[in-house]
Structure formats: C-alpha cells, structure tokens
Design a protein that fits this description.
alpha+beta; about 425 residues; 9 helices; 8-stranded antiparallel beta sheet; Elongation Factor Tu (Ef-tu), domain 3; 7-stranded antiparallel beta sheet; 3 domains
C-alpha cells in the first residue's frame, strides 16, 4: 500500500469498517471470479485522475487525516501514541517580574512543570527506526477461496529474543522506511528469535501498477499474476529513543552587559534534560530537570543548571496518545470506539460518492446534511438531547456522521464539550 498522506487509522481498517471487499478497495481482480470485485467500475484506484470522478485511496487518506486532526483537537489527545517533536513553551515565572527561580524547583521542592500540548503522556523521547532486514523475502500462500489466489503474504526475519512484535513495521523495499510506503495493518509474532509477519497480498501491489501515465493500464491488477506484487519488503523496528527529551534555553544577556565581548549576540544558552510526568498522565503536566543521557547505563545523570537559574524556554520531545491496554497491540491499534469515529467522520466528508456499492451505502448513511431545510425526516431519526438544533450547532459540522461523532463525544464526556478534561484514558 502507498499513501502520501499519513493517517493513524490504516486505510484497510477504514475499508473493513465500511464493509468493502478488500480486492475492490486495493484495485485487484481475479480472472473468472464472479462477484462485485470483477467489476472494473467498482474498483478503487490510487489517484482520482485514474478513474472518472471516483474517490481514490489518496483522496480518502486526506479526508481521514483531517477527521483525525479534528477529533484530536477536541480531545486534546492523539488517537494513537505519536511522537511530538520540538514543542516550545515559556516557563512559569515568579509572580514578581524582577525575581528569578534559582533552583528550578517549586515550593514543594519538586521540578518546575510545563503543560504539554497533548494529553495522555507516555514517555519523553524521539522516534527511532532501526533496520531489521532489508529485502526480506515474501512467501504467498492460499488460505481461502478461490484456490487460485494466494491471498496471504508471509515474511520471516530474525530479531532479538524477547522483542515485542508490535514494534515491527513493514515497508516497500528501497524506500528507507518512509511512512508513505508502509504496509499496514500487519500481524506479527515472535518465537525465540524468529519473527513471523503476515499481511494481505493486495496491499503489496508493485509501484508501477499503482501510478503510471498509461491510460490503458488504469484497471484492477490481475491477482493471480505474481509479477503484479512485491517479492520482498524492508522490515524495521520502530521504538522510542529516550536520549532526547527536553532542551532548556536561557535568553542571552544584552551585548552591553557583556562589556563588548565574551558572549554571542542573539544566542541562547542551552542544556539538555529529562521529563517526568507529574500526577495524572492524561493531563501531561511535565516536570523538567537538567540532565545528560548516559548511553552505557541507559539513564540520565543530573546536572546543575547551566544558566544558574530557571530556564526561560523549554523545548519538548515526547510520546503521547491514547492506548487501550487491554489490546495486545496498544501502540499500533486504534481503539475500536475511536476508529469508528474516524471512519464515520471521514465517510461523511467525502465530497462525492464512492465507486462500489458497500462504500456507497456507507457514504450515503453518514453524508446526509441534517441542516438541509427539507431534511426534517432525517433529523427525526435522531434522539437528540436538547433538540436537534443544539447538536447541529457543533464544531464538526451538520452532516449526519459529524453530528453522530459530536454526540458520542459529548456523551463520553458526561455532557462536557471536551470529553474527560485534557485527554482521554482507556479504562
């Protein structure tokens, strides 16, 4: 699969929630197979210009990304653990402006804090990609009818003993682990030092078949022709690197106070440090402490303040987002409730009808604009607290899917506009 717009909800999961045939959605056909996937007019394509006035997978990815962004902005939390990079904050100063905090501690003796922009803090750090194996071979096998179509792709690689399989990611070969070329969702397991990864064959169509300028080739690819599918993939380990968490900055003194030398104009004094969540992780209230990462001990060593007082600015790097800890893969699988919200909101916002019947039915169900004057009959289908108009006046929009998601968010927050304060925690 290829998508230039990254999304937290995999396209294939949206496809499943919409009830679509996977062959249709990924543009794969099987010769002689009767059924909806045999209809070229019902297949989805990579780009909208490859099929007259049809929704494409790239266009769908853009709509899903916008739906995720809108929901996250209201929840103040990412829908899936994500790395936040280089987030700048001014530190909290003493009430009297002429005073400085000289030890970076509050009245309780604890580290000074700053509010992270996103709730559900997990840990400080940055994303780290480590190549496990380049050009890992794919073996295709058949697990369901028709017997002529090898529907399952399997990749086997060697990993360290005890490796958590949810941190294994698969990409098109030769793309340097670019997120636009990630194949997902996958199923991975580790036994000893052997990792076995499986995914749908139709998500591994070769790039030449996805994007080209030859109009005669704009058709579903033949599923029984092995030349249409990848023979190998690159496997990476995607984990958190804790070495980079916070950089503390001190504003430089004026050049006059330097006496004409000994300082660089307009240059901060900088120092690294570590982060610690204070209280409820949902709130992402973060304490920051000057420290240096020791790669040998894999721990931070405390340091004195480089600026001799509390810093003026802090820059944060951290991992935060909603996790369903009852799931075997909480870091890569969006909880069902939020996945359904994203799928419904995206379907409501598609600007024209999808090419296949199931997705068309899904789109028609959620895209009806309830603010349309002749839409009284549709509005009456909703049991809206406070009357229909109270829910139509919401920040997501007036289409049925937008109203449905907003109503679900309000109910989840017990009547509050933003559910459960600063973020959401799965219980």
């Amino acid at each position: 699969m290829v998508q230039s717009t990254p999304t937290k909800l995999p396209l294939d999961r949206w496809r499943a929630l919409a009830g679509m045939n996977p062959l249709q959605f990924w543009g794969v056909a099987i010769a002689g197979l009767e059924g909806p996937n045999a209809n070229t007019d019902s297949a989805w394509f990579q780009h909208s210009w490859q099929h007259l006035d049809a929704i494409s997978r790239e266009e769908l990815a853009q709509v899903i990304a916008k739906a995720e962004q809108d929901i996250e902005n209201l929840l103040k939390s990412r829908l899936l653990p994500s790395w936040e990079a280089d987030e700048w904050h001014q530190t909290v100063r003493p009430t009297r402006p002429e005073l400085y905090n000289l030890n970076n501690r509050n009245v309780r003796g604890q580290a000074q804090t700053v509010d992270g922009e996103w709730g559900n803090f997990i840990t400080g750090g940055i994303q780290q990609q480590t190549l496990v194996e380049a050009g890992a071979a794919i073996v295709y096998t058949n697990t369901m009818l028709p017997a002529t179509y090898n529907n399952l792709a399997t990749v086997v690689v060697t990993v360290d003993a005890g490796q958590d399989p949810q941190f294994l990611h698969v990409y098109y070969p030769g793309q340097n682990g670019d997120q636009a070329y990630e194949i997902r969702p996958i199923t991975a397991s580790v036994v000893g030092t052997t990792a076995t990864i499986t995914f749908r064959r139709e998500m591994a169509v070769v790039l030449d078949q996805l994007t080209n300028y030859v109009q005669a080739d704009w058709r579903p690819v033949e599923g029984t022709d092995d030349a249409n599918f990848l023979t190998e993939v690159d496997v990476y380990l995607v984990t958190n690197n804790p070495a980079t968490q916070v950089t503390m900055l001190w504003n430089p003194p004026s050049c006059s106070s330097c006496g004409g030398g000994g300082c660089t104009a307009c240059a901060y004094t900088a120092q690294t440090g570590c982060l610690q969540v204070i209280g409820d992780p949902r709130q992402s209230i973060l304490g920051y402490t000057p420290a240096e990462w020791d790669a040998d001990t894999e721990a931070f060593t405390a340091l004195a303040l480089a600026g001799g007082r509390q810093p003026d600015i802090v820059r944060l790097w951290y991992l935060a987002g909603i996790r369903d800890m009852s799931s075997p893969t909480p870091y890569i699988t969006m909880p069902d409730q939020f996945a359904q919200w994203v799928a419904i909101l995206a379907a409501a916002r598609l600007d024209r009808e999808p090419p296949d019947r199931n997705a068309l039915r899904y789109w028609m169900q959620w895209s009806v604009d309830l603010a349309y004057q002749s839409g009284g009959e549709q509005i009456s289908r909703f049991n809206m607290p406070g009357g229909p108009k109270s829910l139509l006046n919401n920040p997501l929009g007036t289409r049925r899917g937008e109203v449905y998601v907003w109503n679900a968010m309000v109910n989840m927050g017990h009547g509050q506009a933003v559910p459960i304060g600063h973020g959401v925690r799965m219980r």
